Amino acid sequence: MTVQPPVRSIQGTTRLYAVLGDPVAQVQAPALMNPVLAGLGVDAVVVPVHAPPQHLEQIVRGLKRVANLDGMFVTVPHKAAVRRLADRCATTVDIVGSANVLRREADGSWLAENFDGFGFVAGLVGAGHEPGGSRAALVGVGGAGSAIAAALLAAGVDRLFVYDTDTVKLTALAARLDAQWPGRVHTLSGPHLQGVDLAVNATPLGLRPDDALPFPLDSLPSGALVADIIMKPRETRLLREAAARGLRIHHGIHMLEGQLNSYRAFFDLR
Question: Looking at CB atoms within 10 Å, which of 4, 200, 235, 261 has the fewest?
Fold first, then answer.
């Protein structure tokens, strides 16, 4: 018999955390964070908020005025845009150009941080995949992808190859990363990954069953690890086809699981 975590009732004293995304049906933060909050005895709840891009600024400014809202989690496609709506940004946000959490400070200001990269690497290590010394390739340098790129470099990958269809964004990120980790970042002209130990999909391709593959699999060596950051569906087309080829795979949910302790510390949940 499965033992369910304790569930706290929502009442007038309950603190709120919002998850901003478009779409938002696929977000996993409420399912993971609410049992953690209940288990800690914290009178708070995490709720999804569907925020279309054209209304993001209005929604964020409105949520900031909700007196019992202590933080926001940010997902696709808002991680780059939301950083300009914060009053202050942590160093990681300045380097990668995106944020995935906002926290209300004691003085009422809002601080932006990004734990996507740390969570991705923590998930890799937790699954037995140490990235240090490897050759890695990353396709998609949006909000999460940019953070993962920085975290992989910080974790000691020997070389990182990055690609995105948006060449302006790709070039800008590569320049910021090269300033921190000189000589280890290489941009690609297409999603053709060769001779790498780790191949990461950080694009939205895979959210829908008819999506194309973010990169071809036939050029990957037999021992490569293919990782996807998409959490729902758990088995994306990329992971299914990689497994069918005998490649090792790594699921997207590990990235969020790897961030839970960071969220607890950032929001002082105890």
Answer: 4
Share of the chain above pLDDT 90, in %: 91
Question: What dihedral angle (degrees, nearest 10) is formed by the CA atoms of 32, 253, 130, 189?
Answer: -140
**Set 64, 79, 169, 232: catalytic member:** 79
Residue 219: CB atoms within 10 A of its CB come to: 14
Q: How many CB atoms lie within 10 A of CB 47?
A: 14
What DSSP element (H or E) covers 266? helix 260-266
Q: Indicate the fold that domain 117-255 takes in CATH.
A: Rossmann fold (3.40.50)
For residue 79, give both structure tokens: 């991680």
Write out the two tokens for 172.
Answer: 């800008």
Half-sphere exposure of 91 (CA within 13 A, CB side): 4
Question: Where do you find CATH 3.40.50.10860 in the chain?
Answer: 15-114
Mean pLDDT of 180-192: 96
The topology (CATH level 3) of 15-114 is Rossmann fold (3.40.50)
**pLDDT tens, residue by residue, 24-64:** 998 989 998 999 999 999 999 999 999 999 999 999 999 99
Within 13 A of 218's CA, how many CA atoms are on the CB side? 0
User: What b/e sequence results for 57-92 when a residue is b if at least 16 CB atoms lie within 10 Å of its CB, and e otherwise?
Assistant: eebbeebbeeeebbbbbbbbbbbbbbbebbeebbeb
**What gap in Å lies between CA 225 and CA 241, rounded to an integer?**
13
Within the chain, all domains assigned CATH 3.40.50.720 are found at 117-255
CB within 8 Å of 202: residues ≥ 6 apart: 138, 139, 140, 141, 142, 144, 145, 148, 229
Q: Is a pLDDT exceeding 50 seen at residue 132? A: yes
At residue 8, does pLDDT exceed 80?
A: no
- pTM for this model (two decimals): 0.85
In the residue annotation, 232 being an active-site residue is answered as: no
